Amino acid sequence: MPTMADVARSAGVSVATVSHVLNETRPVLPHTRQAVLDAIEELGYTPNTLARSLVTSRTRSIGLAVSAISNPYFTEILQGVEAAALEHGYSLLIADPHDDPEHERKVVQLLHERRVDGMIVAPSADPRALLAYLDRHAVPTVLLDRVIDGRADTAPHFDQVCAENTEPTARLVTHLAGLGHRRIGLVAGLPGLSTTGERIIGYRQGLATAGLPLDEGLVVPGHSESAGAERATAALMSLTVPPTALVTANNAMTIGALRALRAQGLSVPDDIALVCFDDFAWADVFSPRLTAVAQPSREIGAEAVRVLLERLAAPDRPARTVRLPCTFVHRTSCGCQEEDGGAATGRPRSVRAARPRSARSQQVSRSGHHQHSEYPEEGTLS
């Protein structure tokens, strides 16, 4: 197996120069650096990662702690993190906190004990123990997807990367209102998560923009998972006057809502319109095709790596929160007609009151909702 000395002889430099190239401990002239890299490639030299970490106090590894890795949204984030980490020469250690505050702190401690250079963490609904640990040990960290807002005098500050949540949710609601719906239900996420709170705010803003009253009985937590959304949707559809349209606040809850509607013999969008936050690979092959807000999942993951590396390079710079725009993907589950070729036209079908199978149909009033502004098939939300 070739050694660092072999690389030095082949490149015509000292062993110390090879070490500086590998460990980035001192600037090296570009042509000298390239000669070392060429020698490494030619000889098939593999650096000793452990020895390198002893020299640099860096392991060139990143810890990633995200719950529900099987969720397509987090799977795509993981792909973005992995690709960006590899591009910059970092390996990845992954743990699933299971959205449990105690387990979350434990897995983050385990990652820290593996001497990762920094961490990317999607915090739970109660991240106090997590943040206390990260702050106490001064672990370079980027909070992912879920943001932490705290008072400047009490909260530790971390870089954060997430998608826009409020405005895209409001657009889903105003789109439904523009189609004539006056009772729009929301299957919300896990209480305590910033994504849940921001999407509820967006829902309320959308109602206000459309001039519709807020009925708190139309907002039911689905706890960010399929079974919870199934129960929440059943509860909404059992109301004396059920909603005629639903907004589901993540992709897992969309599946649960569809199961509940099917169990009650209701058809989307003929009996009830459905739109969702989170697009996913098979949303376009459902019948009907799902109108959704698409998050830039891979870009979120890649951006989290870039922000973390900037933090490692400049530990004292101010913390920042980066929000990436989402995309409105207009399909037909909202009740819009479909042209040949698969594009949603923006022309609504007739709107009927959704109801459980045993309930009588009620006609929805369209007073004040005759005008409708058409949306493009896809558009960027800032």
Short summary:
By secondary structure, the protein is of the alpha/beta class. It contains 12 helices and 15 strands.
Write the layout of secondary structure elements.
Layout: H1 4-11, H2 15-23, H3 30-43, H4 49-56, E1 61-65, H5 72-87, E2 91-95, H6 101-113, E3 118-121, H7 128-136, E4 141-144, E5 159-163, H8 166-178, E6 184-188, H9 194-210, E7 219-221, H10 226-237, E8 245-248, H11 251-263, E9 273-277, E10 291-294, H12 297-313, E11 321-324, E12 326-329, E13 336-338, E14 344-348, E15 378-381
Helix pairs in contact: 1-2, 1-3, 5-12, 6-7, 8-9, 10-11
Compute the average pLDDT: 85
Beta-strand content estimate: 15-25%
Secondary structure class reads alpha/beta
Order of helix and strand elements from N to C terminus:
HHHHEHEHEHEEHEHEHEHEEHEEEEE
Q: What is the molecular shape?
A: elongated
Determine the N-to-C terminus distance.
53 Å
> How would a textbook summarize the main sheet?
7 strands, mixed
